[in-house]
Structures are given as C-alpha cells and as structure tokens.
Amino acid sequence: MAPRKLNVLVYTGSGSTVESVKHAIYSLRRLLSPNYAVIPVTETILLKEPWAPTCALLVFPGGADLGYCRALNGEGNSIISQYVRRGGSYLGFCAGGYYGCKRCEFEVGNKAMEVVGSRELAFFPGTCRGGAFKGFQYHSEKGARAIRVNVSKDAFKGAGVIPEVFTSYYNGGGVFVDSTTDKNSDVEVLASYASDIDVDGGRDKAALVYCKVGQGAAILTGPHPEFAAANLSPHYDVAGYDELIASLRADDDARTSFLKACLTKLGLDVSQETSGVPSLSRLHLSSISSSDVDDLLHSWEEIISRDDGEEFIRAENDTFHLQKPETMWSVTGLREALTPSDSPDQKPPGLGGEGIVDYSTIIKRIVTHENAWPEAKATPYFNHHAFYSSLQEYRRSEPEAEEWGDFLMYGEVVTSTNTLLEKNFKLLSKLPSGFTLTATTQVAGRGRGNNVWVSPAGSLIMSTVINHPAHLAPSRPVVFIQYLAAIAIVDAVKSYGRGYDELPVKLKWPNDIYALDPRQPSGSPPSYVKIGGILSHCSYSSGSYQIVLGIGINTTNGRPTTSLDALLPSHLAPFRIEKLTAGILARLEALYKTFVRRGFTRDMEDAYYNHWLHGRQIVNLEAQGGVKARIVGITRDWGMLRAEELGSDDKPTGKIWALQSDENSFDFFRGLVKRKI
C-alpha cells in the first residue's frame, strides 16, 4: 500500500522571502490542521530526499522566481513535475505562480527589474505577465494594495459556500494570459481581477488559475489569498497602509472561504472549523505527595526573583510567573482566564485577533499546588487523581519504579513540552529525574529537524527529565535511552489491561511508534502508519547529562493518521491518557534503573526486536552508491543499526556495517552513514 499523503511542504529555500513563507505556513496550518503536517523544506530536501510519496501538496510562496530557477532548474524541476504529473498537487502564490507557468514576463521595459524567459514546470501553458498593478518594489510594501477579485463560482461546484468577490493582498503578482483558449482546455479560471490592470491580461484578466497536469493539478495565483490582515504590521512610511489592513480585515471571512475552496479543489481535506490560535493556559505543578511541592520550590530558590511580592523565574527562553491556587478564582484571575486576548501575559503587546504569536514573549504562569492536587475545574482535560492512582498501581508491579512521575506539571495548552524544558536551562538544571511536563495541546510541537506543528487534543504529550551521570556515559551511552523509551511505550500499551496485549503496535528504528492501519482492506498486505515518536535532547550540567525525553502518541485522536483507540475491538474500553502516561513512566523508570546497573541487556535487546518492523529487511544505502544490505539488529555499543552487506545474488558478502541516521530524513533509510565493523 502506498504511503498516506499527510505532508504539506512549503518551500523556504533560495528565492523565497521570510514574510511570504510566514503567511503561507500560518494560513495552511490554520486551515489544514490536524489533517496534515505543514512542513518547511529547502531545495536540498526537494533534490535529495524521497518527499513525494508522502506529500499531499507542494507550495511555492512569494519571493523571486529567478531564485527558484537557480536552485531547481534541471533536476529539481524534473522531480517536481514528475510528482505533479503522477497525481500530486502544486500551489504557487505570486512568485510561485510565475514559476509554474510556461513563460514569465515581469516588468517588461523596466531595465532594473525586467525578468523575461521560459520556465521549466509549465503547469500553465501560457504566460504570466506582471506586475498586474504598477508600483512593485523588492523588499518593500510601497507597492502593496488591497484588490478586489471576482470569483468564478462555476469552477467550485460542490465546494460549499463560495464568495462572489473577495479582497486580497497584492504586491507584484501577475495575470495569466489567454488562459481559456481552446488549446488550453485543461485550464480553468478560478478568479479574475475586478478592476482594470496595468498590463495586457487578455480577455479574462485571470488572477488565479487551475491547471490539470497529467494525473495531478496546480493552482497558480497572482495575488496573495494566503495573507491574513492579522499578520500584517503597520507601515507608517507607506501611505494608505492602515486602510489596506482594514480592508483585508473586513473581508477576511470571504478570503478564508475562497482559500478553503482552492485547497478542496486540489483534493485536500480542509478543516470545517478554521483552527484559531489557542491561548496558552496555566501550568499546574503538583506532586504525588502534595507537601513535596514546597520542597521542590525551595530548591528553586536561587533562580526565583521577586517583584512587588510576585515570584518569577526569568529563564533563557521563557519567563515563568509562580502563582498560588487561591489566586486562580479571584476576580483578577477570572478576568485573565476569560479575556486572554486582553491579558499581557497571554498575548504579546500590540497583537490582536488570530495572528502569528511570538510565544517567547508571553509570560508562562505556574500554579503551585502545595496542599492538594489540582481541582477538576482547573484541569478539565486531565484528571490528576486518575494519574497518581494509576502511577501507584503500576509501581506495585514494577518494584524499581519509585520516583518518576512524583512531580508533574500539566498545561492544557502549551508551546511545546520539550521546548519549555530544554530551552530554559536555568529551570532544567533544578529538576530531578522523572520530573514530567505533560499537556493536552501543543501550539509549537517539536519534531525531527525544525518541524513544528500543532499537536491536537487526544494526543499523549509528555516530556520527562533524566539526569544521566556523566561517568556512566562511556559504558551506558545516552543513545540507548530512546530505545528504552520505545520499549516502555509499547509495553505500557500492551499491559494497559486484559486484552490489550494483542494490539498491533510496533517500533520503527530509531524512535518512531507505528500501528497497523485499521483502514486497510481485509486481505490486503499489512500496512503500518506512524502514531507516535520520541524526541530526545541532551545537555550537560554538574556532572550529569540532562536528557529531556519527549514522547507524543496519537491516543484518542484519529487524525492525521490513526490512533490507539482506533485499534481497539469493541469490547475494550478506550485508553485514558492519564493511565497510559503513568504506565509509560513506571516502565521507563524500571528499564532505566536496570540499564544503569547492567547496560543494554540481552532481555532489553530481545524486547526491542520483538516489537520492531525491520526484521531482516533489505534496504539500499543510496548515500553509498546503492549498496544492498540486510538489517540484522542494532549494535550493542552505540545503538546504531547493524546490517550485513549483500552481493548481487543477495547472499552476505561477509561485511557488517553500522548505520546511523541523520535524523532529518523523510525516510530513515535514505542518508544513512555507514562504517565497517
């Protein structure tokens, strides 16, 4: 079965501008979450990585299309063209629209700015001519304007409510000339410029076009329907810019509806409810023994500062305000909770509405529960009693599980559990092993590389601190801790209760959790999809390696792939995130303590192999010229993938290789680095 296409890739390489990339990623995440992961990619990814099989949409934002040509002409454009013609989708905004045409004509006659020439992709078989309106200047808003665009509603049959006209941001885009002549029967005009333009745009004055390309399709735009007024900053040096923002804001619903219709026409599953930008919630600090919270706060004494009777931790990336539970339901506390957009510690100064948020400027509030666990009304999506009672129950069957999970900090909406710990070393250095931060929703969740996305409710999201003594590192390498975590996750799922041991959950090297796809037709070969992952960050402090071990698992949320609940037969109860979190912590602590005493034991190795997907899998090591190898395990010294090289007859050559992933690849079996052992 072909991989599910769940990635929306936004080009951020040569030629793109930061502003255009920012707007594209913001709008796409808002409209497509949680069905897709919107991921920035560079030309290196497009040229070197196997991105196409999992890509639902490739997006080229505004910028300068000559930069795109320099980076991707030849091989890159051939890969992109093949992707679209085989059923992929391309969305080009402004410069990305010029780039997708057969010919580009920009500012003809203006020697300083003129760009004229053919383009290789040629999704639109004609010319994109611009700027449609005069005044464009590179790296400037002086040529920007709010324009009216007439929608061709017949092109969106079955797409729901579509506006007849909408207001769009414009800055330098083109018009698609002779778009609907007989020879261009595979082209539809989606929208036209409502007013006169400053170049010859033919009879249609086409502002956006849809092009059928082989089995796939492309939408190319002149204006910027992805630009939201909420993300435009005032430009006091540009006359009329405030009016531009006001015009866009007044018609934002129509613009959003049109952009949704375009994404739907490209075959994407668009969220019915537009995802807003959730406000950050309080963080609730508690302990299995509530009085221990006071001891933990005492150990933080040297990093706490006091202003007007209020306590703060001003760490490297975030500022934390320590509060008592009794202030939560005061008039001031309720006002903060009910009007977050007006609260200075919820939104950065000057930001309103649904715009892009710089979360590092927002003060994070920690409520310290020193007398009792948080009340249900304070944490309606996480039951602390269920968590701590489950932890005690698991400890009865795991004698070595004694401390991890004793301290828990929970937030309904956080930036990223990993980032809040690893980027704030002043706080991290004061945390004991087993301290765990968990959340219901992340708005800036961390993934491999620089991937960032919203983690929806229903995911198990946790980050645990492990202080690994430095003197143990040579014989107990830190790399094995991610393997211990993987074993702990699968063990916790399968030991959740009677009947859960048969759930088809597997490990993919080095740090992903996969499950049998329940949507696979009966009788088809088994197909596994990713439902979780592990992200480990390591730093050094006071004789220990401080590891922030992040874990994310689709537990009750079925999108974007599937979830643990979807695997359950009807007679088994759904998973409770509180209980599963406790089970993972207890199992992980027991495994880690055994690892410290005895290393990565044969029992651990066997447990890992019992759950993994790669038994004797044959792979081609493309980075080494296509050498064929069979995976036989992991090395017991540094935890690398162990493989035996195969000859042309698929028989072992006698060479054994250790393989290490670059951890930034779309496919771990691309970009493997090998060394002989």
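(the above was protein one; protein two follows)
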Amino acid sequence: MSSKVAQKSYGTEKRFLCPPPTAIMIGNSWWADVVRRGEDPKLCPPRVVISISGEPAPQEGSIEWTGSSGKSFDVSDPPTGTTYIGRCVGKQLFISDVDEKKKKVEALVKITAPSSDDEPERVIGVFPSRPIKVISKPSKKRQSAKNLELCINHGSTISLFHRLRSQTVSTKYLCVSGSGSSFKGSDGAPLMGLDQRSRSTTPSFIARTASWDPFVMYIVDVNKPAGGIDAPPPPPPQPEYPSPPPNAIPFSNNGSQIPIYYNQTVVLQCLTSGVVSPVLIIRKVDHQTTVVGGGLQEGAKGVADHYCSPGEVCGDPVSQLHKIAFEVYDNNKGTPEAGTPGLTGAFLSCMGEKVNTYRPIDGRQWKHTSPNAETNSPTLPGSPIASNASSTGSDYFGPNPGSAPASPSTSEFASNDGGRVKKPPKRSSSSAGGMSKTVPKNRRRPSSAGSVSSRRGSTSDGGAVSGALWEVDIGETSVWTIVGTDQIRYNFYVPPVLFDNQHVSQTSSFPIPSKPVTPFPGVVKYLPPDRAAEVPKSNCVSSRAVLSKPNPHASKMLTVYGENFSKTDPVSVFFGSEPSPFSEVRCTEVLGCLPPETQSPKRRPIILIRSDGVVFPSNTMYP
C-alpha cells in the first residue's frame, strides 16, 4: 500500500512519505524452520526492508505479527491453527533531490527468509509498489478536472491524516477499529482460523500513528436508499474491492473517471473491512481552520450542483494533499432559508486516538460579499430520503460525539512535512477564463464544473465565489489532509515440496524457493485464436522463418498477455487443475498455449506454475 503522490525533499530536509509505504504479508509460508547450533528447529519470521527506488536502502523494518483475528502475538511463540499476518511500515522514507528529472518512484519491499547459522541469505522476493508521482509541493492552484492524476476521483482509494500545529510527530491516520481481522486469502475467502462469530465490537473510526487504512471514496446520491432489499449495490470499481454502498453513483462517464468536487455528498468505505461511514459533505479548508461552502453567486450561471448538499453547488475539484474537512450530512436539515448561510453541521474530528464529531461554536458567516437572497437558495427537488447510514452516525464515532476540542491554534498551516511554505498570492478566479473549452459538449457529469470557472463571477482576492459563499471556523482538530493511495497484491503459493529440492529433510514448515518469486509473472488477459493479435509480419526475416514452418497448433492457440514471462525458465499454464497440453513463451509479455482438452461448462482460473512448483494464481477466467 502506498500513496499516489509524494513530495520531494530539497537539500538536507526530509519530507517523509505520508502515508508511509506499508507491506502486509498474509500466510504462514513466509515463516521457516531455522536450525541454530545445538538447538531444535525453530519457526522464525522473515526479515523485511522497505526502500524507495533510487534511494539508499534503510535498515531492516520492524514487523507487527497478528493472527487472523487481528490479535498480536510474540514471534518467539507463534500460535497454531491461525493465519499469520505481518505488517511492516516503511517509516522515515523520503525522496532526495539528487535526480532532478525523477518523475516517479516505487516503494520496494525486499523480503528475506530467516536463515540458519551457516546459510547464505535467501531472498524470497523484491516486490515493487505501484508508481508514486514525485511532486515539489501540493498545488495551490485550482485543479483542472482534466488533470486526473492530481484529482481525487470517485471510487478511488485515499488516506486521511491529521496533524496538530503542523508537527510531523503528531501525524495520525484515519483507521477503522478491527479492520485487521478482515483480510482475505488469495481465493477471496476469509482466512483460516477466523471465527466470524467472535466479532463483538461495532467497528468505529479511530486515529493511529503507526499504521493506516485505505478508504474507497464514493460520491453518493442521498435521494437513493443506502440499503435494503430494493437497493442492490453497484459492482465494485475493482474486482477485489468490497461491495459499494447502494447509493453510490455509477463509476464512469462514457469511460472517463469522475472527479470529486467540494460540497458533494460522499461516503468512506474501509477497503479492508468494507465498513461504510455515514454520509459526509466534503468541504474545502480555505485557509488555516476556515471551511467554505455555499450556492450560486449572484449573476453566476451554469455551475454544476450534482450530488451537492441541498442549496449548494460544486466547488473546486478535490486535489492531492489538500487540507479538507468532512461535515456530517443531516438529511433533516434541507435547503438553507433564503438569505441565510444555513446552520452548520458537525465535523469529523480527531482528538487523541478518538475520532468524534465536533459542531463549531460559531456558525456559518457570509464571506465578504453578501449574496442576494434569491440567488442563494435555488429550488431543489423535495427533501432527500433518510439514509440508513446517517442514522447510525452515533455508533460509528464511538461513545462520545460532540466533545469540544482544544481551542484552535493560529499557527499558519505548513507544508506536508512541517516545513514552512510561503503562500503565493491568490489569483482571482477569472484568470481561469480560458478553461470553458476543456469539456466536450455532450458531457453530463460534474466534470462540467471544471469548465465553468469563468462563469463563477470574478471577485477580488478572498471574496465569495459560487460554492464558497459562506465560511465557518472548525478548529484545528477537524482539519484533515487527503492523498490518493494505490494497492497491489501479489498472490503466490509455495507447495510443501519443491521440485528442485525434493531431497531436503522435511520439517513442519514450508520450504524456501531456491530463487526469488519476483519479478512476478502475471496474467492480464487472453485472446481466443480468432482474435489473437500475434500474426507475424511477412517482411521480417525471422517472421518469414516462422511462417514457412507453420505451427500445427496455431489454429487453436490462445494468446495470453501478461508480464515477466521468461524464456529461460518458462512457466506451465493450467486451467484450474488441468494443464495446457502445450505452451510457449514468445516474449516477456506474451505467451501462447493450447486450451484444456476437456471442455467444462464451469469457468476456470488461468494459473501459472514455475518449474520448481511455485504457483502464481490469476483472476483471469477461461473461457
């Protein structure tokens, strides 16, 4: 698990990656029996180093081991009858400015098997994260909805962290209690040794300093029911994600992603446990601890109001490493009365390890220009239907919602890691006047808000614009920083006996493969014979040789696309438990194979098996 963007460090400063890249090892074959002089074989855990590509490797990381129920155990006395889960957090990792052209990096997780006294180090694998975009600092400019890499999109995963007085030592990450007992095996089933009935506590938001949970962020339609028999949930945006809430809007607009805008109604769903938050309104923190929101400014036209809080319109697109706040949506409030900014709701607030809600003492105030009463409250459809999620808000935030935080400090907000950042002067919103052409005319989604900044009405610095007519001081405890995250899962199975070391004396633990399991062979998709794109070009010498000796299997061959296929150590292809009668690696990303000989009405997964017996399952099904 890693963030999608990270700030570069300049000179001697160290801007640590937030959230820190984290490796989670699930399964017992990471552990191995180790023989130390004069002792009986003893089960020992692997060693892990998390580093950033192109940077010097730090020292070995510490791993917290738990059973499948999420309960920690002592590594010198591992329990039996449960699945081991190890979590290693790559603390204090940063990107130096040595390579100025560096645009992307990866977090690398090197996992080494425990070794006996005289044994050399055996690397199980070096597992790369998804690419992390390197930025110099969070953008203060209004993001164009076209810049999808820096926008936070509907159905994407995020991390939220909170800092007091901009000090990095106080960084706390939003988590869900008990999420550690929700990990699934490679087959998607609950882990061995987990008794689902033993879950006694209701999950709730908590704040942790040492680990973090990714959340899927969905825009929701509050006019739709949040659950029940007549509201089936939409399919998840990724196959391994939990089922989304039924009131989540569709995931794509003609195939393009949908950015999230300030003032929209959203929910957070814990990626691991699937627990869904009450409905929240995502708010922009304008400066320090001031949040803004609101409807159309007088005279402005065409600002989208899709899925916004009643009476409001979309603000800017939510962007990476922005300071934000979450106002709890109250379906009983309705549209604000004409001429008033409306009553403030309660905000998601971090106090120590507790995450509660806090209602600001001073309510909403108009920003400098007082809007006309008529334009402030456009007519909207009848009040939204009550959402089940919002009614359970009090359970979700623990037993003590609404306790007031310490008075907000006036220290200026700082950069991502605590170093001071000078604020550039704000440009008036009319400087984006040329943006109205960015969206095709047939687009019908809130992305239109990216095209209407020129119509929001030009105001002087700090004045009110559509979507930011009022402000409210929410105090420091309710300010969060949002950053997009990425996850990549590597599934493999080490059998009890490996083909290349069958003579090894059997112990109770799994064997260690003689060579690393990475680079990881993986299947992306396959094409049937009539659709394969692998037809050789006739003007190339080597291709002519191929054509002159036609492959007798060519008319039936499937073409499998993937990564890290090796000609020197080719993998065998299986369809479920049945091997392919013939397979050949064509290059690192393409292999050809014959389909299984027995026809089965049941779909079977395509599985790759290395010559030593290590198994690499895939999610690609045949036929």
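Reviewer note on protein two: Confidence is low (pLDDT under 50) at residues 370-394, 399-461.
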